[in-house]
Amino acid sequence: MIGVIIIPNSKIFKLTLLLILLGIFHLLISLFFKTNLYFYLRNSVIVYSIFSFFIGFYSLPYLIKFVKTIKTLLWVYILYGLIFPSISILERFMAAVFFPFLFKRYNYISLTGIILLDVLLAKRYESMTVALVTFIIIIILLIQKYRTFKLFCIIGGLFIGSIFVYLSPNFKLYKSPPYNLYGNIKAVAQSNLLLQLDGNSTWRAVFWYRILIDRFPENILGIGFGTPLLEYKKGFDTVETENDDEHDIHVSGCHNTYLTLFLRMGLGFLVLIVLIFREVFKEFYSFKVYYLNNLNILLFISFFSVSVIGLFNLVLESPTGASLFWVLLGFIAAVINNRQKEINLIAQQPHQHQ
Questions:
Q1: What's the CA gap between 340 and 10, in Å, rounded?
Q2: What one-character DSSP code corresponds to residue 127?
């Protein structure tokens, strides 16, 4: 007898399945457009890492026991990495994702501890990204309603978009000589005082401009896998890495993981990931009190951390970062599913006594 595959009644589960199907579609189409097989296989991590979601979804019952087992080791590892800063020892971005698991429950003490660890991490590793992630997480936790959060996102998006439009003429200066894979960032920075505040932010902004504007309308359908993010000159090596420009522009991201995947998988990815986040945040704000009474709210904080990190760095393009994101999303989908089942059981009890 052939077993029947039962899909859980979880919107996040179903949206993730659609995302996998979209990824597989692009993998198949990309076989005809890839630059070479090596770059194609390197990019394929974007799709196969999504399967980590199912590990999180089905292993939730073992999470608490696992966290208790490794908690002491995790404390030793993180404290050592903070005392003796080394990126090879402590990944300065992803470490913040594990901080919630160091505490037994969610209260003012644990929240203060998480924030202090984040601040210490940002200071010790001189990471503006960690500080920014901490700031955004605090805002998310302070907001009380989903409607307020949605309004905050809309206003924030419009604000960033207006600045982006205002600076667009400056971004175009990336084409100025001399040639560089990412463009003449120095010329862009010197054209406006705002762009001189932080070199890394200016570099990212130019990259995003090229992804969104210069690659339109290709980005609507997606450029697929094994293809270059930007045009490059073969044989040139203008970036301070171990590899040449051709390698870098094929396997790296644009330091906003969602824009990178939007370029590779098109508007379909953007729609699905927005719907997934919509489900997560609606659940979080609608049943915040429920999740406050158990360890599950710490899962939400960890997931928010890795999600916000993706706004400024590579996450879904790397095996470790992507697996962490999808496993945590699997946990979130599972706790939501369990909460729905629990409420349904409670709702059915009065009928059983009638």
A1: 9
A2: -
pLDDT digits (tens, 9 = 90+) for 13-24: 999 999 999 999
SS3 content of the chain, % helix, strand, coil (to 5): 70, 0, 30
Q: How many CB atoms lie within 10 A of CB 251?
A: 19
Q: What is the DSSP letter of 175?
A: G
Question: Taking 90 as the threshold, does the pLDDT of residue 119 lie above it?
Answer: no
How does pLDDT run across 217-239, given as a tens digit for each residue? Answer: 999 999 999 999 999 988 888 88
For 169, the enclosing helix (H) or strand (E) is helix 146-171
The length of the chain, given as a count of residues: 354
Q: How far apart are CA 134 and CA 123, in angstroms?
A: 12
Q: What whole-number distance in Å separates Cα of residue 304 and Cα of residue 277?
A: 10
Whole-angstrom distance, CA of residue 242 vs CA of residue 248: 9
Let me know how many helices (H) and strands (E) the chain has, helices first. 18, 0
**What gap in Å lies between CA 73 and CA 83, rounded to an integer?**
15
DSSP conformation letters of 11-46: HHHHHHHHHHHHHHHHHHHHTTT-S-HHHHHHHTHH
User: What is the CA angle 2-7-11, rounded to 5?
Assistant: 170
